[in-house]
Every structure is written in C-alpha cells, then in structure tokens.
Specification:
Elements (H helix, E strand, L loop, with lengths): L8 E3 L4 E4 L10 E4 L2 H9 L6 H14 L7 H12 L6 H13 L7 H28 L6 E5 L14 H10 L3 E7 L6 H13 L3 E4 L4 H6 L5 E4 L3 E3 L4 E4 L2 H11 L3 E4 L5 E2 L16 H4 E2 L2 E2 L12 E4 L6 E4 L2 E4 L6
Helix pairs in contact: 1-2, 2-3, 2-4, 2-5, 4-5, 5-6
C-alpha cells in the first residue's frame, strides 16, 4: 500500500487545521481555526465527519474554547454547543465527557491541560485503528473481494481507519483482490471519500450504487462485507450509515461474513439495545437537491435518516482494538 500523503486534521497547540470533506475529492481545501463555533458548524455540515473524527475534533474545539477567555461559562456554552452537533455517534459524547472531567474550575492552566487531553484522545484513536486493522486482517485468511459502505478510513478517524484500516492491512498482507465501494447516498461518502482513499493507497476498487450490492453479492463476487459503526449498544446492535442494515441482511441470505470494525469508544455500554439509539434525521434538501440543482419539488415529503441499526445477530464479528468479539455480544 502506498503511504498516505495527507493529514485530515492537525492541532498545532493553538488552532485546528482540517480538510473540508464536503469538497473532496475535487478540491483539497484546508480550514484553520481556533474558534469552537466554526468546528461545531463543520461537524454539523459534515466538513468533519466519521464517528471517531467527530469525537477528536470536538475535543480540540472544547479545548480551544478556553484559549482566549478561559471562563467556566464559556466552557459550558462550548460544551453544550458541541454536544448538539450530531446525535448518533457516541464518540462525540464520550470525548466531551472525558474533556469535561479534566476541567478544573478556577485553574489557570485549563487550556493547556485540556489541549493535552484532546491530543491524548487523538493519539489513542490512531493507536486503536492500528490495533483494529491488525486484529481484523487476521480474519481475512485468503485473497478476497470485499465490499464496504460509507467512509471509515483516515478521513473518518485518523490513523489507518477502522473498516478501511482492516482492508488496507489485509491488502498489505496480500489478501485483498478488489474493494467494492458503495457510493453511499445521499452524501456520497463512499464514492467521494472511500474511493479517494483507496486510489491514494493504490488498492484496486470500483464504485457502485448502493442498491447494486445485492447483484454483486448474489453473483458471488463479494467474500465479505465490512463497515464501521457510529454507536454499538451493549447487546451488539450497531448504528451505522443508512444502508448498512440492508448489507447485513444480504450477507445473512448469501452466507458471507458481515463484520463491523470500531474502537471501544464507539461502544455505548449504557444503551442496552439498538432500539434506544437516537437516529439523526437530516434535512430534506440532501435528497431534493444535487448541489444547487433541484431534483424534485422542495415540498415533496422526505424521509432522510442518516443511520440505521444492524441487529447484533446479523453481525459475524465486531472488531475492536481489544480484539474480535462474536455473537452473542455482551458489552456491559
Ligand atoms: O454521517 P457520517 O459520514 O459521519 O457517517 C459516518 C459513518 O457512518 C461511518 O461508517 C462511521 O462513522 C464509522 S467511521 C470510522
């Protein structure tokens, strides 16, 4: 695999620089800011996206809220603002709580201390990805064709990525022949971002519309499907990008493995099952427009959930940095 030559987000101790993922792959534009409000908006608009990346960047944003003023009320306002950005990825809440636990009312060095905590959260996620990639690649024991959904690589995490990290490691081991990347409607994280990362890594791939996955699987062209997750309930039910559930059903019907790869920061031990996971619904314009071009009248009713929940029994294994877990799951 060719070594990647870009850094999706970087904190220099005074500001966060991140790549605007909504413009990729046609434009590689970086935004540098020390304002938490800009980072919160970037998370909402999916300029920064992917569960672990949302957590890491929200942690940097919360630290930066203390750079100039440092008052507890500014910190609490920033915390509440960041918490409102996206409801499903549990990494966001985990990172914000970890940061809040490090805040000491009245202390003069809160900015420095919280910056260090944010860096350690980032470094841990990079480490987690490396471990996930190693554990997951051991499951791919022969040259295989894989199918993936959404984007779970460097852009979504840092480091190698989760599901895409497993694919990259398995490719280095000589066990990936081809990757089928679902385009991932409506925002094209697969065709824009996963394909971009696979092209950079020199891994053979092709892009298909999400609904073509059944044809590929039924034709025996896919040996395994692997995706990431935004929140994993204690019983293993896993929320991920809309369309993931369909893939798990196909895998079950055609008896091929369906893997989820995610760090343990994505496991929500307080949530018993997928029924309790809040699913983000996004604005209708994501369907009724393509960029500035209307596709159908704006008044048509739209259903636009960003995620679905794959039942635990459809998941062959959940790959974390701590190892590989198999059904029945019990993450309490
Ligand atoms: O809406 P997004 O693009 O943030 O959704 C991302 C996904 O669903 C990813 O699969 C998930 O966050 C795992 S990222 C390693």
């Amino acid at each position: 695999m060719k070594k990647s030559d870009f850094t999706p987000f970087h904190f220099n101790g005074a500001a966060l620089k991140f790549i605007d993922q909504t413009l990729l792959p046609l434009e590689e534009k970086y935004i540098e800011t020390d304002r938490y409000e800009i980072i919160a908006e970037a998370i909402e608009k999916l300029e920064i996206r992917g569960a672990p990346a949302i957590g890491v960047c929200a942690a940097y944003a919360l630290a930066l809220s203390l750079k100039n003023s440092g008052t507890q009320s500014v910190f609490e306002t920033a915390y509440a603002r960041l918490k409102r950005t996206r409801p499903t990825a549990v990494n966001l809440f985990w990172a914000l709580e970890t940061m809040r636990a490090g805040y000491m009312p009245g202390a003069e060095d809160n900015f420095q201390r919280l910056s260090k905590i944010a860096v350690s959260i980032h470094e841990k996620e990079i480490y987690n990805c490396a471990q996930i990639s190693l554990h997951g690649s051991k499951l791919i024991t022969k040259p295989s064709n894989s199918l993936t959904h959404c984007n779970t690589g460097e852009l979504a995490v840092a480091g190698m990525g989760t599901a895409l990290g497993v694919i990259k490691q398995a490719y280095d081991d000589g066990n990936i022949i081809h990757v089928y990347a679902d385009e991932t409607r409506p925002l094209y994280q697969g065709s824009r971002l996963t394909a971009y990362e696979l092209a950079k890594a020199g891994i053979p791939f092709s892009v298909q519309i999400d609904s073509a996955a059944a044809v590929l699987i039924a034709a025996g062209k896919v040996d395994f499907v692997i995706t990431g997750a935004d929140r994993i309930a204690a019983n293993g039910d896993s929320a991920n990008k809309i369309g993931t559930f369909n893939l798990s059903v196909l895998c079950k019907a055609y008896n091929i493995p369906f893997y989820i790869a995610a760090p343990t920061t994505t496991i929500d031990r307080k949530t018993g099952s997928g029924k309790e996971i809040v699913i983000e619904e996004r604005k209708p314009e994501e369907l009724s427009f393509h960029k500035d071009t209307p596709i159908f009248p704006a008044e048509y009713p739209v259903f636009n959930p960003a995620f679905d929940v794959t039942p635990a029994e459809n998941i062959t294994a959940i790959i974390t940095e701590e190892g590989v877990f198999r059904y029945p799951y019990d993450f309490k």
